[in-house]
Amino acid sequence: QVTLVESGGGLVQPGGSLRLSCAASGSILSINVMGWYRQAPGKERELVANIVSGGSIEYADSVKGRFTISRDNSKNTVVLPMNSLKPEDTAVFYCYAVALSTNSRTLRVWGQGTVVTVSS
Q: What does 4-59 look like in DSSP terms, one character per residue?
C-alpha cells in the first residue's frame, strides 16, 4: 500500500518559521495530488496547500504569501516552508496524497498528522 510520513511540526513563536515535510512510500506508480490540510481544535479540517501533476498549486487564502508548497517528484516528497506563523495557524497538519498504486488503484492517503503550535 501507500503510506505518508510527516515531519517538521513543533512549537514556534508568532512570526517564526517551520518547514513541514512529507514523504510517500509504498507501491506507487504515480502521485496525482500531494499537499497539506490542517485541523484546529473545534474546527473542520481544511486545505492548506496542494500541488497537482502539471504543477498547479492551490493555497488557502489565509496562508498565501506565507507558505510555499513544492514537490520533489523523484522522491514523492512534498515540503511546506511556513513563514510568519500566526497563532491561528495552530493545528494538526496532515499530509494528503492521491496516488496511483502499482496495481492501478487510485488511493487517497492521509498521514498521521504533525502538530504545529504557534504561541508566545
A: EEEE--EEE-TT--EEEEEEEEESEEEEEEEEEEEE-TTS--EEEEEEETTS-EEE
Q: What is the pLDDT along the chain (120 residues), one digit of tens a residue?
A: 899 999 999 999 999 999 999 999 999 999 999 999 999 999 999 999 999 988 899 999 999 999 999 998 777 999 999 999 999 999 999 999 999 999 999 999 999 999 999 999
* Angle at alpha carbon of residue 107, lines to 116 and 79, rounded to 5°: 35
Q: Who contacts 70 (Cβ-Cβ below 8 Å, separation ≥6)?
A: 51, 78, 79
**Based on the number of CB atoms within 10 Å of its own CB, is 79 exposed (0-12), middle (13-18) or buried (19 or more)?**
middle
Q: Are 119 and 13 spatial neighbours (Cβ–Cβ below 8 Å)?
A: yes
Q: What are phi and psi of 109, to 5 degrees?
A: -125, 135
Check if the beta carbon of residue 108 is closer than 8 Å to that of residue 96: yes
